[in-house]
Amino acid sequence: MEPYIAEAERARAEVVSLKEKLKALKSANPKDKKIEVLETKIWEQEKAASEAKSAADAIDAAVFDVKAVNPNAIVKNDSRTPDEVIRSIEDQGKIVGKALETLRTLLQGRDSVTKYWGKLGVPPQIRMGKFG
């Protein structure tokens, strides 16, 4: 990886140097044929720098892969048929329905107890469970 990084840095430095020469050449003589040659060299050096950087990044990604993946995890494949999945969802829906029914019953009972406490003169903050 280090050689690729060094190559990319060297190529980028060469590009900077070539661009300075190109700027000076364009200001001195905008129709000089050397301009085209310099532009080609700049393009080649930028491509070389990009390729070296890509190679270094590829090595970095392969060697230093720090994804949060458990290599010991057991993968479970769902082998149920679509009908079995639907049946399971329906069964879970029934369980949720029963739980909601129980919760409604408990809440209705709580409301009647709260009303009864109100008749007895128990302050609202105590009825609502706020003792502090």
Descriptive report:
With 132 residues, the chain is mostly helical. The chain has two domains: 2-63; 88-127, no CATH class. Helices cover 76% and strands 0% of the residues. The protein is built from four helices and no strands. It has helices spanning 2-28, 34-63, 82-120, 124-127. Helix 1 (2-28) packs antiparallel against helix 2 (34-63). It is elongated and about 100 Å long. The two termini are 64 Å apart.
How much helix, percentage-wise, in residues?
over 70%
Oligomer: single chain
How many H/I helical runs? 4
Order of helices and strands: HHHH
Q: For the terminal residues, how far apart are their CA atoms?
A: 64 Å
Major β-sheet profile:
none
Overall tally of structural domains: 2
Q: Return the structural class.
A: mainly alpha
Q: Indicate the mean pLDDT.
A: 84
Global outline:
elongated
List segments where confidence is low: pLDDT < 50 over at least 5 consecutive residues. Answer: none
- The fraction of residues in strands falls at under 5%
Report the C-alpha radius of gyration, rounded. Answer: 37 Å
Total strands: the figure is: 0
